[in-house]
Amino acid sequence: MIRLYTYAMSPYAAKVHCFLLHKRLDFEPYYINPLRVKQELPVGRQIPVLSIDGESRADSTPIGLWLDERFPDAPRLLPRDGAERERLLELDHWVTDRLIPGSFRSYPGEGLDRIRNGWKLGSVMGRTARGGIPAPLRFAWPWFVTRVAFVRRLVAQADDGLPVGESKRKLYDQFLERLEGGPFLAGRTEPSMPDLAAYPQFALFYALAFHGGDDIEERPELMAWLGRMGKHLDGEPPLVPPHVRERALPA
Ligand SMILES: N[C@@H](CCC(=O)N[C@@H](CS)C(=O)NCC(=O)O)C(=O)O
Q: Domain residue spans in the chain?
């Protein structure tokens, strides 16, 4: 019995969702209510948490390492050892510490987008979280979300001094460089942990039709990688719950 405690819009939890799809494991996403974190989460205060047969662990990368240990015969996230493993772990750290905080800065975004995307975040949360969230809170989401401590921390971490749009485009370029000409990151022929960690950072915002999320269409190389990943991650349950998806992902 595998259960992923998640929010539909959590980039870190989405990363673990992709690990589970890659490993072709049966699992149940449990969309927790943000107002009941303490009561609903089996450990800690942060999403994601993964429970396997009653044992629960937090933190996306350690969860990935645990999955490889627990299910060694399922497709691996990383090679067992050696320099290639270290290199892929370094790439995963880049995704976790640079690309993901970048998403927290790019979405909601700036100006009017900040409000429109903030409402979208609230709406997706309200339509996926167990028990929903009260309408006034959904309405206040654009203001609420930017005041949450961990969001502020990640936005500050992502602030490279460039305007939001420029910073986002720079991350796209840095991501594409890391493909090293390969179909997958580090020039590999199969996806590994950092590809699975990175996929939701483009796919979620695109599929949920966030304002500004479609700028990836200007980069055919990125769209082609998303298509290759999409074929690989076509299992159940889908990363984006169908009732909130607004745009089909490249496949
Ligand atoms: N290092 C953690 C970060 C997880 C994280 O920041 N989760 C957010 C949701 S996207 C959270 O639950 N934040 C609540 C908090 O920090 O109070 C990971 O990689 O899993």
A: 2-70, 83-232
